[in-house]
Amino acid sequence: MKSPSTLLVVQDIDISCEFYTKVLGLEFIETHQDCIKLKTGEHEVIIFQGTGAAVQYDHGYHANSTLLFTVDDLDSKIAELKSKGIAFIHDTPNQNRWGRYAAFRDPSGIVHELFELNT
């Protein structure tokens, strides 16, 4: 197998393209009538136009998928995204055995996380 890609189905492809490229900083690769291709590092994110918002669920407890964006400084990245209007799911970052993380929703309600590895 080649390296995996991620497929997202979003509520509004134009709003999502703006969010993922301008807010999160993913690289725009190409567009088609019903989808766009973005890239972060070596990972491709392919986004298709859907018909509604993401299904609501209790993040961290119900089965689902999440893009995990590894950052060097979690607190400064949270502050940066909050300044761009991003609301986080929890008031403060959480921690697990590998590091600290904070979850947020994209414009379609899809949950993603910022993650800072333990050093």
UniProtKB/TrEMBL annotation:
<protein>
    <submittedName>
        <fullName>VOC family protein</fullName>
    </submittedName>
</protein>
<dbReference type="InterPro" id="IPR029068">
    <property type="entry name" value="Glyas_Bleomycin-R_OHBP_Dase"/>
</dbReference>
<dbReference type="InterPro" id="IPR004360">
    <property type="entry name" value="Glyas_Fos-R_dOase_dom"/>
</dbReference>
<feature type="domain" description="VOC">
    <location>
        <begin position="2"/>
        <end position="117"/>
    </location>
</feature>
<dbReference type="Pfam" id="PF00903">
    <property type="entry name" value="Glyoxalase"/>
</dbReference>
<dbReference type="InterPro" id="IPR037523">
    <property type="entry name" value="VOC_core"/>
</dbReference>
